[in-house]
Write a structure and sequence with these properties.
Length: 426
């Protein structure tokens, strides 16, 4: 399927503090009541609709696990690890308890700790930087590309060249004195960061790269490079709202390195090898059998769901263009030759908060991913960042809004969302 390339409208970086939008009143009484059976709301995500199509496949595998009474790191987990590794063009898969723990395990396996720094994006879910800080290391933020919202390769090169020094075999952040130990890009919203460029820069500086692919299972860079296959470690989340979602928390690491894979397997069970013998300190990061069994059923449907998300995204583009909203909205950029899986469909508006209030009044589910960039989170105040340090991330935090794109959306529901957005701009 060919996806039309539409770039977001250029938006100037934001330098000032955000201004609270005036409350928007619900549109009541200005139009006749909807006919019986008409759509009056569209949720951001409807997991019940997905479950109804899978119920007869999922319940038997849950019953099988219950009959076997093998709940932790059993045969379902081992099969799932192989299947996800194959799906992600990787040699090894290591199942873990969540996407956050996948990041944590990757950092632990690479020896990241106090006195270290990891370069990452300020525009992501908190776990990206939170896991770095949890190990006593320092997140070193590099601004995003304003079109893809992913870590900017040119910005990474500039940061390394202008803010870091070689001291022996170490690369030192001049400002903090921390040793840079890894680069951790995020494949945000279901589109890969510039993997060839980022991997090339990381290799040039001798840094391992951890791919935060929590939102990008099956996504590809131009040229067919799968998320999770290029970095030293790839990290996936199967949180229920993800394109491939468990019935609770679950995650997985991928790697091409057999030695690193074995180290992660040991670390996820408290560092015990053999059992009750501990040469290293690990953690309890195990994937349970029930989640693996459910995910194996869902994996069989993932490509069909991705196609449905892509169709929904294409329909949004077509309808917004037909209504002349191209100048009003920044639509997601789909890189030519890549595979965008649309974990979210994120539009952009300088009147984002008012638009969201209007859509809420119309019953349209939305979410802001993410309202506060990581470098401005209060818990990272000790890093000394101020507004303006990452202007593209700060602008995106004020202007982006996710609208429904889940596979089970109907054409009528999409039209309802489009009309609500059009009414706001009218």
């Amino acid at each position: 399927m060919t996806t039309t390339l539409i770039a977001p409208r250029e938006v100037a970086p934001v330098q000032a503090a955000p201004v609270q939008a005036a409350p928007v009143q619900a549109d009541t009484g200005s139009r006749p009541p909807p006919p019986a059976g008409a759509i009056t709301s569209v949720p951001l995500l409807d997991l019940r609709a997905q479950y109804q199509t899978l119920r007869d496949e999922i319940l038997p595998v849950i019953a099988e696990v219950c009959e076997q009474q093998h709940f932790i790191l059993g045969p379902q987990v081992r099969q799932f690890e192989h299947e996800i590794a194959d799906y992600s063009a990787s040699a090894h898969g290591i199942g873990v308890s969540s996407g956050t723990d996948a990041l944590l395990l990757a950092l632990m396996a690479l020896g990241v700790g106090p006195g270290d720094a990891v370069i990452t994006t300020p525009y992501s879910f908190f776990a990206t930087a939170g896991t770095v800080a949890r190990l006593g290391a320092r997140p070193l933020f590099c601004d995003i590309d304003p079109l893809t919202y992913n870590l900017c390769a040119d910005g990474l090169r500039t940061l390394l060249a202008q803010s870091c020094d070689r001291v022996g075999d170490a690369l030192i952040d001049r400002r903090s004195g921390a040793r840079i130990r890894a680069v951790m890009p995020v494949h945000l919203y279901g589109q890969c960061a510039d993997l060839p460029a980022l991997a090339g820069i990381a290799a040039e500086y001798g840094l391992p790269m951890i791919e935060d692919a929590a939102q990008a299972i099956g996504a590809e860079s131009p040229g067919g490079i799968r998320a999770g296959s290029v970095g030293t470690v790839g990290c996936f989340s199967f949180f229920p709202s993800k394109n491939l979602g468990a019935f609770g928390d679950a995650g997985l690491c991928t790697t091409q390195d057999p030695v690193l894979a074995e180290r992660m397997r040991v670390l996820r069970v408290h560092g015990g090898q053999p059992k009750y013998h501990h040469a290293v300190i690990g953690a309890n990061l195990r994937l349970d059998e029930l989640q693996a069994a459910v995910l194996r059923v869902k994996l069989r449907h993932l490509d069909a769901w991705t196609l449905a998300r892509q169709r929904n995204a294409a329909l949004y583009r077509e309808r917004f263009a037909a209504l002349g909203l191209g100048a009003e909205l920044g639509l997601p950029l789909a890189l030519p030759g890549g595979r965008h899986i649309y974990n979210q469909f994120v539009i952009r508006s300088p009147r984002r908060d008012a638009l969201r209030a209007f859509l809420t009044a119309r019953g349209v589910g939305t979410e802001i991913y993410y309202p506060v960039p990581l470098h401005l989170q209060p818990c990272f105040a000790s890093l000394g960042h101020v507004r303006g340090d990452c202007p593209q991330a700060e602008a995106a935090a004020l202007q982006t809004l996710a609208i429904p794109v889940y596979p089970e959306l109907t054409g009528e529901q999409i039209e309802y969302v489009v009309r609500a957005v059009a009414d706001f701009h009218a």
